[in-house]
Amino acid sequence: MSFWWVNQNQTGKYEIAGGFMWSPKRNRNGSFNRFYENMRLVDSGDLVFSYFDQLIQYVGLVQKPAVSGARPAEFAHTIWDTDGWLVPVEWHRPPVIVRPKDMLAVLRPLLPSKYSPLQRETGNGLQSVYLAAVPESMATELLRPLGSWRASSSSIAPETVKLESAIDQLEDQIEAGIKNDTSIDETERQAVVLARRGQGRFRKNLCEIEKGCRITQISDPRLLRASHIKPWRACASNHERLDGNNGLLLSPHVDLLFDRGYISFGDDGTLLRSPRINPVDFARLGISTEQGFGVTPFNGTQAKYLDFHRSSVFLSNNA
To answer: What is the per-residue pLDDT for 6?
Structure first.
């Protein structure tokens, strides 16, 4: 388990109610932002301190790693880029509301030397920070006032629904926009909506390119899922959502690994495995752990989509 601190002064009421954290991927000028990049390091089971109005008001349990997702509709008034990271979180209201500034004498020597969420001199929150890593020693002190209470306690009722709901809500917003888009005809709208679940025209287009699962070699279509390479929610256009080159036919367990970023592919077909999964478990799932193992190379258009998957879906680091 890792520990995190999220500043939610602008976004807290939406993120707590919606069961997520969301950030852009880059600064507005396209430059690297450590606090946004931290979203890619978060993993299932990590604990997050929600900080706003100078108080830690919620404690969250991360439900799954970050996914690439468009800016939520609730943030439409902001100046942030529309492309970002979304992390589903189960938020809990603790029995004691902690004011870190009152604990500054204890916390000061435990603050990270770089990328601290608090000003070392005053104990005030740093507005430039979104998501910051918290050392375990600091997390221990922040949890101390809560006594035996823990966000993981089964007796604690979550403030929000679990796991997939935040991602589903985001995709529901996109789907609603498509259904209300009068610039495309009804047939096109239906095709794009069905593509969200790997059905209809998208699957037909995909089956003209891919004939089976590249990992398991299964070719019976009844046993395969039509999986987008660049996720449906992240596509820049409806053409991308329907493009057969933006997909793979995968066995269900391979589809899960690919969708959640635990495997990916190089353009030449080399299988990429995330260090977040134990190689023993990959082997048990029938995923080769042989160095350099690969499948048939991908065509040029597939390669463009795979570049997105490697950079925005594949979990290449081990937080």
So the answer is: 95
- pLDDT band, residue 80 (cuts 50/70/90): confident
Please tell me the distance from the alpha carbon of residue 170 to that of residue 193, in angstroms, as a whole number.
14
Structure tokens at 135: 């050392």
Amino acid at 96: V
How far apart CA 3 and CA 66 sit, in angstroms, is 15
DSSP 288: -
pLDDT at 152: 62
CA 96, chain centre distance (Å): 29
> What's the pTM?
0.81
Longest CA pairwise span in the chain (Å): 65
Q: What angle do CA 38, 43, 45 make, to 5 degrees?
A: 130
C-beta separation of 18 from 71 below 8 A: no
Which domains occur in the chain, in start order?
3-162 (3.10.590.10), 181-312 (no CATH)
Q: Identify the H or E element spanning 186.
A: helix 186-195
Q: How far is CA 229 from CA 50, 69, 292, 311, 312, in A?
A: 33, 14, 21, 12, 11
Per-residue pLDDT of 174-231, as tens digits, reads 999 999 999 999 999 999 999 999 999 999 999 999 999 999 999 999 999 999 999 9
Quickly tell me which residue has 């918290």 as its tokens: 134
